[in-house]
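Record pair follows.
FIRST:
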Amino acid sequence: MHTLPATDLELAAWLRLSLAPGLKPAALRLMLSAFGLPEAIFSQSPEALAEVAGEAAARAALAPTGPEFDSQLDAVIAWRELPGNQVVTLDDPAYPPALLTMPDPPPLLYIKGRLGLLHTRAVALVGSRSATPQGIEDAERFARELSMAGIAIVSGLALGIDGAAHRGGLEGIGGTVAVIGTGADLVYPAAHHGLARQIAMRGAILSEWPLGTPARAANFPQRNRLIAGLVSGVLIVEAAMRSGSLITARLANEMGRDIFALPGSIHAPLSRGCHRIIKQGAKLVESPEEVLEELGFTRRTAVRAASHSRQTVPWDSPDSGSSAAAKISGAQAILAAHTTNSATADFAAAQPPAPPPVPLTSEAQRLLAALGHAPTTLEILGSRTEMEDAALQSTLLQLELAGQVTALPGGRFMRASHGQSRADHS
């Protein structure tokens, strides 16, 4: 190893341990507790280390570095010198205190952005990569409101719910933290390059993986453990039965964190994971305020005023529904005319067999996808699809007549359960 300043020699020792193949963080923590800093570990005999952490861990810790180690160290030092970048070791006062409550905190963390966010109370908001439009809106709204209350929003930078959580978190004073499953010098998925730049400037990006580590499926459960470790609670917004979000929830539960979940339609595949963890004891929440109350956060008066200054119309607003109700009265009248005689058995028996269902137009398919599984107003559907009013209303009528959509009081619409199942499996 080439000659280095004392601080870089310390970093080299930590890097050597963090890169040691087969040395698990929990075993390393045992050694550090017994012997102190990494340099002291390297001066121990294999027998002394084995007595503390086992033979395999002793061999891994004392294994010589490979020929590429010097170049890896140079890369880390160079990366650390870039503006906003920091490398934090387990003995550093800047190390996130929440992670120290884990049994296996990483020895080395690569951080881009605001290190202070890792020392504030935080909530993880995670969910499906294939989120519905309603799920995206819910995730952004919850993240924004929690961030406005001063809470950092932690997620994993994935597509879908994670991305929405980060975008919402950036709108409040709490900010957002992205815990990633690649090296801190890479962005995955590539579609989130712009979002990652915003987070690095106004939030924080955190990785325990060596620089240059590509995205590998096996890395993400370990990434989820860090998300769980950083936070006071985990909120799940849309998750299938087999979901990485449920892994995060399980790990967080094992660490004593609170688990929350948004409920959804019993017909929605992405509600099933949420319903499953609710049955297992997660707290069902319907508003950001419920999360704040459960975690004992006090909402700041100034922040409350700021949040109320954002004029938004919720999907169940009576005002938004009254104008929509007038617009759809004609469609309801047509539907009523079509169903007047449907209750007469003799009439029904005399009818010819029902024709096969008419294939949906591309506009109808797009509108059905935008509808999701929760009651939604015309205004929200218009903003999601960018369809003109006339096209929107005629397409909704087509879907109602096809049995795919149900009109509800207050000018709201939702998928019909039988129609929804056909659409989901098409």
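SECOND:
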Amino acid sequence: MAHLVQDSPEYCARTKTAFVPPTLTLREVHAAVPKHLFEKSTGRSLLYVGRHVAMAAGLGVLATHMDALVELLVQGPGATAGVRTVLWAGYWFWASVVLTGFWTLGHERAQCGHDALFPVPAANAALGLLLHTFILTPYFSWRTTHRHHHKGTNHLDRDETYHPATRDDLQLPPEHLAKFMDYEELVEETPLFTMYKMVLRQFLGFQLYLIHNRKGNPKYPPWTSHYKPSSLLFRPEERKYVVISDIAIASMLLLLALWICQTSWANVWRLYFVPWLWAHNWIVTVTYLQHSDPTVPYYRNNQWTFLRGSLATVDRPIFGWIGRYFWHGIAHDHVAHHFFSGIPFYNLAEVTEAIKPVLGDYYYYDSTPTLYALWRSFTQCKFIESCGDVVFFKNQYGKAARECATDIGNHAAPVETQTL
């Protein structure tokens, strides 16, 4: 069991090396990828979508007959209650896995938001709207901010999500003056309180981000919302699409309300909302661990480039075959996704293998067990310094797991990527 709470060899190796900003070029990375991997197959894409819909439908049918199945299989109150509990727990887990797969198909992995499933952009948008609305995610609004994330990944002024707190935000003394007692409040946080904050973030964090920009870019005013067409998140020409997303979400909520009226709140709660909450937990797990890691840099000013931002990403085999099969490799091939967001998800594993030799040590992979990696990032990624062009997370003792080389001036961003 000890291996479940240990850092991976890849992670440990990164903590032992000073970080030097990469000077690779996009041309080198693109040249490594065979051209046929850029091709989109409508038939293959529909097959993946159809397979996922069939799994969801099968689980739904099974769940609606769950109690009758239990009565048929076992006799006796104690046995019936035990079997019912096990079967419902199994349904909630697998249904949440499938709902998370809808989210990845709708935008992040099958990349309808990047027009990567079908050759026709309108077809991608229609599918993305349907799939995201089913899990109460405003498709067009999220697509807009997600594209901004791709254009400014780990840029402290431009990125949209999971913005780290700074030393100034926490009102900590300057690093050269800070003493252990200055970090006392961070250190004294009890494991129980930490767990409470994690549960809140895991199950509600994504919706809170959509509703009022929780953990989003602080450059926006309070209560900036994905549901508000006039929000500064959107350009004027994008606001009509935000309205469409809002109408779609309102329609889904109406359908759920009618379902509750026709059956009961308890029925809809256990069939839809419990797996929906768990799906949010998986979504937050995946998206948080993609970029929030003690060994991954953040950039300011002229040290950021599109290539460096794309490399500030960690590939993880989250839940092994479950993540590969049901979540379409969302965590397995995220580096490749950032470089080639228009390539279909089913080709990204090959893309990953093609670019790894070019990226070398700048390809970040981490086989640390998922739940431990989540706890590690949540407890060690406390804040960053308020100044510095290349910074890393610091823990509750004010220590960084990795440092940047002092001669970053000799590793200026390549001119080729400055404007991307």
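COMMENT: Residues 349 and 370 are 20 Å apart (CA to CA).
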